[in-house]
């Protein structure tokens, strides 16, 4: 058996050549293993640096109301930079239908957006969302119509809810948080009826009122026949309504017409303390109007902020 000779004239034994190849393969496998282990360790380390925590939008408070004889849930949004130990104070928005599964989240989004420094439409503001227990009970005054009583058997106790707002909730918020005298209330549909009732009967309870698609057909529109009590200081009122048509009650009411009548009534008042904004949104309906209407209300109620 011959022994191979390489091109350079040196002898190479086949067993030696095989051993060297085997060692090279083992070394390659070892290096690849080290690379894979290092990559796995790096991936594990990188993954261990990822963290997960809840996204917190606000606080949830349960307060007992003696006026309503029940506990009420409040959802509270505090603006960025709120510090109970500094001297800054903030206006407050009180939001009806303010549950987490109602209007709280999207209205807080509007407040935050409009108070960004590069938007500067709203001042930084506290939002108090009042979650519902029975909105038909809380937002309506007693009706004289039997069909209303039959359709809404728990209705007619807005007086207690207004007392809750004035005697309990507002003082509670003013004591707990750093607030100014500026107070806005937002209400839609039956909530708009409640806000209208406050504007007409207790206009000094808030400084700004946002009324969206008010269900003024309630009790055959009797609120529109009331004379407004004069506020002690200037107030602003926004009335927004979409293309909503006729409410199918015993006495039909066109909601756009009722909302316009309300705005005209407030504008025609001899009291010069009331500034009124009427906003017709023909591309919105009763279900879709709230977000766009509140956005528009902020723009109209705070016209000077945009030019600062």
Helical coverage, percent range: 25-40%
Structural class: alpha/beta
Task: Give the biggest sheet.
Answer: 8 strands, mixed
Report the order of strands and helices. HEEEHEHHHEHEEEEHEH
Provide mean pLDDT, rounded. 89
Radius of gyration equals: 33 Å
Counting DSSP E segments of at least 2 residues, the number of strands comes to 10
> What is the count of DSSP helices, taking H or I runs of 4+ residues?
8
Which regions contain 5 or more consecutive residues with pLDDT less than 50?
1-11
CATH topology of the largest domain: Rossmann fold
Describe this structure as you would to a colleague:
This protein is an alpha/beta fold. It has 2 domains: 1-52; 59-307, Rossmann fold. Helices cover 38% and strands 20% of the residues. Strands 1-2-4-3-5-6-7-10 form an 8-stranded mixed sheet, sandwiched between helices. It has a two-stranded antiparallel ribbon with strand order 8-9. The relative contact order is 0.10.
Quick gist of this model?
The protein has 308 residues and is an alpha/beta fold. The protein contains eight helices and ten strands.
Chart the SSEs and their pairings.
Elements: H1 14-49, E1 59-65, E2 70-77, E3 90-95, H2 104-114, E4 126-130, H3 135-139, H4 146-151, H5 158-176, E5 179-188, H6 190-201, E6 208-212, E7 235-242, E8 246-247, E9 253-254, H7 255-268, E10 274-281, H8 289-301
Parallel strand pairs: 3-4, 3-5, 5-6, 6-7, 7-10
Antiparallel strand pairs: 1-2, 2-4, 8-9
């Amino acid at each position: 058996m011959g022994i191979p000779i390489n091109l350079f004239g040196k002898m190479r034994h086949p067993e030696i050549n095989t051993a060297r190849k085997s060692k090279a393969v083992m070394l390659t496998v070892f290096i690849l293993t080290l690379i894979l282990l290092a990559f796995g360790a790096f991936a594990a380390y990188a993954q261990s640096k990822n963290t997960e925590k809840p996204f917190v939008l606000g606080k949830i408070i349960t307060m007992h109301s003696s006026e309503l004889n029940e506990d009420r849930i409040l959802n509270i949004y505090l603006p960025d930079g709120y510090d109970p130990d500094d001297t800054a104070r903030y206006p407050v928005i009180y939001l009806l239908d303010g549950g987490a599964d109602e209007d709280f989240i999207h209205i807080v989004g509007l407040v935050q957006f409009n108070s960004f420094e590069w938007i500067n439409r709203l001042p930084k503001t506290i939002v108090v969302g009042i979650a519902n227990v029975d909105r038909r009970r809380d937002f309506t005054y007693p009706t004289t119509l039997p069909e209303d009583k039959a359709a809404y058997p728990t209705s007619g106790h807005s007086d207690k809810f207004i007392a809750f707002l004035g005697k309990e909730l507002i003082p509670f918020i003013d004591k707990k948080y750093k607030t100014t005298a500026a107070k806005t209330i937002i209400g839609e549909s039956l909530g708009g009826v409640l806000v209208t009732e406050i504007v007409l009967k207790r206009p000094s309870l808030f400084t700004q009122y946002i009324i969206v698609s008010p269900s003024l057909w309630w009790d055959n529109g009797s609120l529109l026949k009331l004379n407004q009590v004069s506020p002690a200081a200037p107030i602003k009122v926004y009335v927004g309504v979409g293309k909503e048509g006729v409410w199918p009650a015993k006495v039909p009411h066109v909601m756009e017409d009722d909302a316009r009548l309300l705005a005209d009534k407030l504008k025609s008042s001899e009291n010069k303390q009331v500034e009124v904004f009427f906003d017709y949104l023909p591309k919105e309906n009763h279900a879709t109007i709230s977000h766009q209407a509140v956005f528009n209300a902020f723009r109209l109620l705070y016209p000077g902020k945009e030019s600062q």
